[in-house]
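In this supplementary section we document a worked example of the pipeline. Step one takes a protein sequence of length 224 as its only input; no multiple sequence alignment statistics are reported here. Step two produces a three-dimensional model, which step three serialises into structure tokens for compact storage. The input and output of this example are shown verbatim.
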Amino acid sequence: MTDLVSSKYTFVCDPDECDCLIELTSSDGFGFPSGVMELTCPCGRKTTLVSVEHATLNTPTKESEQMEETTTIGSDAFHSPAVEYNPNMLVTYKRIHGYSDPEYTTDKVTSIEWDLHNGRQSQKTVAVLNDKIDNVRSYIKERFADSDDQEALTDIAEFLDISLTQTVTISATIQVDVEVELPLDEVNDFDAHYFLQDELCIDSNNGNVSIESWTVDNTDVNWD
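The serialised model returned by step three reads:
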């Protein structure tokens, strides 16, 4: 083993978009070309260089054994500039599992690229399948009432988690009689319309009913 002088570069990406910190350690002769220190975040954004530290690395003496560069992506960070593409670079990144605790894993750039590619393909597949399900939903709802085989349509709807319901909007005129005690000094200024609009409440005992809006159109006060 021999000692090589190395440099440790710390980059951050946009904290409002990526939340990523990248540390890159490179030996002399493997650093940034022409002294231009730039690094691109895996998210595609240019990162910002925040510090450079010099260190000493123990490396194999065989010329055939090359030092692997390791990029560590932490949880507290921003987005960074670009380094020369290296498909064998090792990257440590945070793998998120929904609401459970994240785990940190290390993989080569090529493996991450394939994971990203497969993820994009999966998203496209999901979008296509959802579009097909929407077409089936429309087909069933348009034909269900007049179908001679509602049982088969019901089975298909259950397979695809399609709700066999239709949302309708009902407009109605409702007459209510309200009795209220008014102080005598407020009688002349009493406005029945605004009073009902402020004090009347309309609700439903049916969980499938949602009252979006209501208004008071006409009022008539019997002063006798």
